[in-house]
Structure formats: C-alpha cells, structure tokens
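Quick illustration for those who missed Monday's session on complexes.
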Amino acid sequence: MERSVPVSFFVKWPVNTKEYPKKEYQFMKKIILTGDRPTGHLHVGHYVGSLQNRVMLQNSGDFDEIYFMIADSQALTDNAENPEKVRQNVLQVALDYLAVGIDPEKATIFIQSMVPALYELTAYYMDLVTVSRVQRNPTVKAEIQQKNFENSVPLGFFCYPVSQAADITAFHATHVPVGEDQEPMLEQCREIVRKFNSVYGETLTEPDIYLPPNKACYRLPGIDGKAKMSKSLGNCIYLSDDAEDVKKKIMSMYTDPTHIQVSDPGHVEGNTVFTYLDAFSRPEHFAQFLPEYKNLDELKDHYRRGGLGDVKIKKFLNKVMETFLEPIRTRRRSWEAHPDDVYDILEAGSKKAAQKAGETLAEVRRSMRINYFEDRSLLK
Ligand code: TRP
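Prediction with tryptophan bound:
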C-alpha cells in the first residue's frame, strides 16, 4: 500500500543525491507499536485496556506493520536492583501475548533492550526536551509520588517519556494502542516529532493514541475495588490464573457494603462486580448464562431495587470471564510447554525490530547531518 511521499521531504538538504533522499515509503504506512513493562504477569485490566484491542487490530488486516515491544529497559528504570524480576517477566509477558492471540506471523514481538538504535534516538531527542517539560508530565508526576521517589528519582525513570518517543518513532508508528494513562507520553512524543521535523526536516512520523472502545475498559479496578490493579496490592486477576483462583477472586470481590440482605436495595456504581460486567459482559452472555435478564441494564435495575444477591451476580461474572479466560489459559499452556519456541520468536522479532529501528536511526542521522561517512562533503 504505497502512498505518495510529501514533496517537502525531497527538498530538505542538498546532500549527496546518491544517498539522499533514501526515505522508504514505509513512513506513510499504517504501523502499530505498543508495549508493556515486564514487571509481572499481565492481568485482565491489561486485557480489556489494551490486549483485546491489539488482537482485533492485528486481525483486521488494516495495518502494514505491527510491533509489540516488551519494554525491559523501561522496566529497569525503576527496578534497577531487580534485573532478575525483569528477566523472568520478559518470558511471562511473551507468554501472555501469545496466549491472548497475538500472532507472531502477523506481528513482531521484540525485547526493547535488544534494539540498540532506541538508545541513540533517545539521546538525540533528549536535546529537544526540557527538564521542566518532563516535570509537567502528569503520569510521571503521579508515578513519582506513588513510588515515593521524592528527591531520589532515577534519571532513567525521569527520562522515560523521551525514551518512549524513541520506541514509537523508531518504527514510524502511526497508531499506538495504550490505556489513557499513556496519553501524556503520546503528547510528549508528538511534540518531539514536531520539534525534530521543524529543526532537521521532515523525518519522523506523528503517532495517534488508540484507546479501547469502551469507557469501562479504561481503568479496571482491582477486585478490592481500589482504583488500580497492582501486584503489590494483591488485587489482580491474572490471565495466567487457573480457573479455581479466578473463581475465588471473583467470589471475594468488593461489591456494595450497604447491600447486606439479598432483599436490600443495592448500589451499582462503585460496585466492582458491575464495573467488571460493564467491561466484559455482552448481551449474548445473558442469553447463554442468565436468560431471565435480557441485558446488563435489566440486571442493574433488579440489583438497585433489591432482591438480587451478590453470589448470583458473581457467579454470572465468573462464567462471563471464563468465556475468554479459558481459551487464553489453554493457549498459554501449549506455549509454556515449548519455551524454546517462545525464545525463537523473541529472537527473530528482536532482530527484525533492530533492523527497522536501525534504518530509522540512519534517516535521523542523515536529517541531523551527522551521517559523516555517508557524505564526506559534509566535513569541510
Ligand atoms: N509505558 C508503557 C507501559 O508502562 C510501556 C511502553 C514503553 C510503551 N514504550 C512504549 C507503550 C511505547 C507504547 C509505546 O505499559
């Protein structure tokens, strides 16, 4: 799918015509890049917030190239003393990817630190970003607070929005499917792209965020009703949990503390079971598992009126969640039995990603006119 290259591109620098312009058409293609920090197994929040969307995009056939990155070096920015945790979770995240249906034939799965060009790009981009600009990034701000970094923020952590811009632009990504907490990173990335292109000439591609279709999917709470699922709070349902664990977790979910007797009227807002049903249930689940209700609205109405017990809605939620968790679990087991195949996929993917990012780096160096030995006349 070749589209025309903007004319402005061809008239940037009057350099060696043999070498330049050597831009590929690929930067006009539709390209996906996204990733995850390997700090733990992926959970159902990741699934509704991003993974499900990725598989849908992957299978749509609408994209020319798709990259899924396991962001180990970003994970190290706040886990420097824990490289083993990061190392182990690289494989776990890869297994989760394959389990949800990411297909290595259609998408390139790679490990961030195996792509050296990303670090060189980061270094050049850092010259285009001020300290105060990063300090204003609301996600970084919130994370610094959460992690109690106060005055001891690792420099690598502080700069991760810039390194994330390198991840995205190295692949000329046009679409970045992530949760809404990543919007400030995308904004930062677009600023870097605009600044780079205006200073050095049209080179990088501005990406768009690609949010999940359903609002309820934006931030799934933990099973305790706390705002965020997190490993340290022990409130996650992992994609790798077995059916027994999932059931136990759902049966222990936070609901409505004022709904004591079944006959009591109940609250649906802030009730974790209903938040999950908003995210996961579809009308056909009612026909299949709870035919006395047509849809979620009817179920909610009954709960509000009173006369509907928590156990019943929890059992329903469990069945709904198993409709997607069971196939994920089965696929995960089959990959777990062949870890060598998973390593092969990661190795081949990383090689391919390194190649592509290396090409972008060459374009960047050319635009910055630091491609010294491609054009000796640059050195006067
Ligand atoms: N920051 C993302 C996360 O915490 C991971 C990530 C790193 C990423 N680089 C990226 C996501 C580039 C999208 C694009 O999950």
